[in-house]
Design brief:
The protein contains 5 helices and 6 strands. With 143 residues, it is an alpha/beta fold.
Length: 143
């Protein structure tokens, strides 16, 4: 199992519609602005090749993984610096993009349940998106 990201299939620019789980990864190759998305795409291509050869493997696309819903502890990275800076400076970006943050404990619970499902291992990728009450969504704000 490879815990991937929607970055593996997003490519350049905004995505106007939902991305299917069975998106053609080879078509996405070369359409990335940054190395992070490229690396996720390459790893998913390798997983898909292994699955085609009969090796049970699946990519779980979780979106942006955030902190626990019980402890609020999160991995500290550039995204949180960015959010904190906007809050301190009382500014926001004008963008139609949305960030959906998947709590790490929700992700762990889902992966633990899915790993025991035979149907889970027949797919090349699964999108994991929490129900609205379990996630934090970025809404468009104007100041």
């Amino acid at each position: 199992m490879f815990v991937s990201s929607v970055s593996a299939v997003q490519g350049k620019g905004s995505v106007p519609q939902a991305i299917p789980e069975d998106v053609n990864l080879k078509e996405m190759s070369g359409k990335f602005l940054f190395g992070y998305g490229q690396s996720k795409n390459v790893a998913e291509v390798l997983c898909a090749r292994a699955l085609a050869r009969g090796i049970p493997t699946v990519s779980v696309r979780a979106g942006f993984v955030g902190g626990s819903t019980t402890t609020n502890v999160t991995n500290y990275d550039m995204m949180w610096d960015f959010i904190k800076t906007m809050k301190v400076r009382q500014v926001s970006l004008e963008s139609d993009d949305h960030i959906q943050i998947t709590p790490v404990d929700y992700l762990a619970e889902c992966v633990t349940k899915l790993v025991f499902s035979e149907r889970f291992w027949t797919r090349s990728a699964v999108h994991l998106s929490p129900p609205l009450e379990k996630c934090i969504t970025g809404e468009k704000h104007h100041h």
